[in-house]
Amino acid sequence: MIHFPDAAAWRKACAHDATLHAWEGAWSVSFAITSGSDTAVFNVVNGKVQQHEGRTPAFTLAAPTAVWTKFLQEVPPRHHHGMFAMHYRVPEFAITGDELAFMQHAHVVRRVLEVGKWLAHGYKGPTPASLAPRDGLRPIPEVTGRYVPVTLGHTTYQIYYETVGTGRDVLCLHTAGSDARQFHGLMAEADVIASNRLVAFDLPWHGKSPPPEGGIPGSWRLNTDLYVDLIMSFVAAAGLEKPIVLGASMSGEICLELAYRHPEAFSGIIACEACEKIERRQTSWAAHPLVNQAYFVPEWIRALCAPQSPAEYQEAIAWHYSQGGPSVFFGDIAFYSGDWDARDRVHKIDTKRCRLFMLTGEYDYSCTIEASEATAKKIPGAVFKPMPGIGHFPFAENPPLFAEYLLPILRELG
Fold this sequence. Notes:
By secondary structure, the protein is α/β, with parallel strands linked by helices. It folds into two domains: 7-120, SCP2 sterol-binding domain (Nonspecific Lipid-transfer Protein, Chain A, 2-Layer Sandwich); 144-412, Alpha/Beta hydrolase fold, catalytic domain (Rossmann fold, 3-Layer(aba) Sandwich), CATH 3.40.50.1820. The protein has helices at residues 7-15, 18-22, 65-71, 83-89, 99-104, 106-120, 184-187, 190-193, 224-237, 250-261, 293-302, 311-322, 328-339, 369-377, 394-397, 399-412, and strands spanning 29-35, 38-45, 48-49, 59-63, 94-97, 144-152, 155-165, 168-173, 196-201, 244-248, 268-272, 356-361, 383-387. The protein has an eight-stranded mixed beta sheet, sandwiched between helices. A five-stranded mixed beta sheet has the order 3-2-1-4-5. Helix 11 (293-302) crosses helix 12 (311-322).
């Protein structure tokens, strides 16, 4: 059975960790990690981990030893691969104490846990910046980028989009709080772009698509009608002819809505990490004035990736999420886990008018395989397939593996 290291050795390794060292500054916190009857206390003063226990912990992460043993495995089972995954899906795991202090320092706690896992496997320091497998540098595709104006009502949005490849258009929709860079890995897959032209755009307020003129920072709120109108208006403005549409997470949800409202507009729909309703994913901490969004939001989504996904892709996802504007992620989740509720209409989707494929990753703890499959069963003719070894961001976190699931569908769609 794998156990966390001795508390003193753990603190010493953290005190010399390059990642934690980079975050040193005018902040202090004390917290504890409890495994069964064993507790390790970490006292951080001016951003430096002390080698003594120090003051009373502001918050504690606690779980039975059996739960932490699963977390400490080289490749943990699903729902045990990250602290927010456990917080969300493992009842025996608890975070007690000052919740604000935890959310403010979630990135620090996550790193301390990584150092503990590294030591638990008998590895010597220093701990690498990421414990995920590293295959090398991410390939950068040769994209063509341009802007197109999209007008809805009295508002005009300057929408940035990128294209690569030749053949049929595949419209690629990014996830909440991110942008079209999520598709760069897939855009570098030669087999995908050989007969498909990938088209990926940034929603307004995201990536290179600016706010509309007069837009108030922090005011972005996405809803189903606005999302559909933006997509359909972009398709028209960019001159796309019956594209295949691909999305995941919130863009997987809107794929289902597109299948319901506009089936004739698309040659096929591939909805990843989608179901009829998502609960409990909105968090006020993503827009809290005392929580640094650039640190917190990447932590909130980090454990949605599968632990096997290559580090270079996982870190790119986290980096993209650190760059969102004020409350942009929060405004997207207002749709993803708020406005979106298709329980009254998914069964009305007509797959004879447009083929619908649903794919969901094994490690997605937000929209689980079970949730996606249950929705697919309500849609006559929908094809559902689970994706072992992938999480919530299939095209972004492991493009080569996702391509193995995607290419047969693209071929089937002709």
